[in-house]
Amino acid sequence: MNVNTLLKPEDLRSSIARFWDVSAQKIRLLDAQYDPSSGSPVFTANGAYTTRGWTEWTQGFQYGGEILQFDATGDESFLAMGKANTVEKMAPHVSHFGVHDHGFNNVSTYGNLLRLMQEGRIAENEWERNFYEMALKTSGSVQARRWTSISDGGYIYSFNGPHSLFADTIRSLRSLAVAHQLGHSFMGENDVNVSLLSRCIQHLNATAQYAVYYGEGRDHYDLRGRTAHESIFNLNDGCYRCPNSQQGFSPFTTWTRGLAWIMLGASEQLEFLETVADSELDALGGRDVIESVLVKMARATCDFYIENSAADGVPYWDTGAADLHKLGADVLERPADPFNSAEPVDSSAAAIGAQGLLRLGHYLAKDDADAAARYTSAGLTVLNTLLGDDYLSLDEKHQGLLLHSIYHRPNGWDYIPQGQRIPCGESSMWGDYHIREAALYTQRLADNGPYLKFFL
Question: Rounded to an integer, what is the distance from CA 402 to the centroid of its chain?
Answer without folding.
Answer: 15
